[in-house]
User: Fold these one by one.
Assistant:
Number 1:
Amino acid sequence: MFEWNPVNKPNHSRRVEKRAKRTAFSDKTRKEIGDRDGWLCIVCKRIAAEIHHIEYRSKLTEDCSSKRNGCCLCWWCHNEVHTGKRSKELREWLRGWKENKLDEKGDYKA
């Protein structure tokens, strides 16, 4: 009968990290965004559960993991931005918020 002899997967490091890791916010940037927004959802002011990329990582040519491209959202608003009936409207609102409220470094305008 047939015997199954599994072979261990080679344990090598990647030359280039997976795309999701390359475009994720660093821990330092996540903390800066959270501190800037007071760890509250910028839409509804509930306690934030997510750090959201305002411009999708796939659409952005500049550094998509910069402080300027991130905001705090609660779970409900984050889900609504990605899958809700008002997702297009919310994404436009977030882009406007970014342009009107944040300076080039990603801090609130004075």
Number 2:
Amino acid sequence: MIVRRIDSLAKVAIVFAVLWWVISVGGVIFLPYLLEHVSCVDSYALLMRFVLGTAAFVSLRVAVTWWLFTTARRDKASPWVWSLLGLVFGLIAVVLFYCVKIYEAHDKQENPT
């Protein structure tokens, strides 16, 4: 069951990573072109890159936080703690969440009580 969740999480992480890359790297690649070929675009392009980057960052953090909250609540873990970790650390909190779940499953198999 953990393997299925990790597979679905991997797909979500890939989608968010691609979106983040497109916004971050795309702005770096196309901004010099816009500044060079279009007049009066410098402040507007910088503002739009900032707005889109911030929107991607916030939406990723909110999505990770919501996902951690619902998954932790379903798994009888502490949902508020995992939500706070997701809000602060983002995808690193998801990796930590699954490391803890794998450790708990492994510990439960070795020490059935």
Number 3:
Amino acid sequence: MPSAGPLTAVGFEFGAAYALIADDRLALRFSRRHYVRVLQTAGAILIAAGLFIIIRPPSYSREESVFKLGALEAKIQQQHSVPGWVGGIALGAGLVLVVLGLKKR
């Protein structure tokens, strides 16, 4: 049976909840489990965002001033789409995080 060590406070990054755990080894296991869950969640979000960018690239508009003479100004509004390689990088980073989360278990 594990010996009870001093009380340890383990805090969550995403909330104000704290748990008091009597055994240090249990606290270590609990914090690793939490870390793994955060890795996997972040990886899943990156994978979803990467797939979205690859399948249906979002677009944004940019306004440029072409000509300005006193109070008279001519502007151009251009539509640009997010390049597919950005989605590929997000997808790859998400896969790496999920794999790291699975290996930490």
Number 4:
Amino acid sequence: MIETLYASKLEPHLGQLAYHFCEAAPGGDVDKPVGYAERAAERANASLAFEEAASHTERALTALEAREPADETRRCELLLVLAATLLLGRYTGYRLLELYRFRVLARE
């Protein structure tokens, strides 16, 4: 519905689109939800909303897990985006452990 109503101006609604499409992704199309989540993360990063950007990127990663066959290149790219977002947001504690995990996964 949002996609149709605001087809000419999706940018302000990317977060909503990412959320709803990713929630519906299991068992369906994966590319569109991941694309919306990536775009929403880019928009949030550009606005310095790093926590929001991290949430969108994590949402994209979760949706991407449903893809068959797995797209390891895109997964790695998303992990690197998430790592950069976490660094930009100066996350500490458990988020730093995630950064280490991403580094290990990216090297695989």
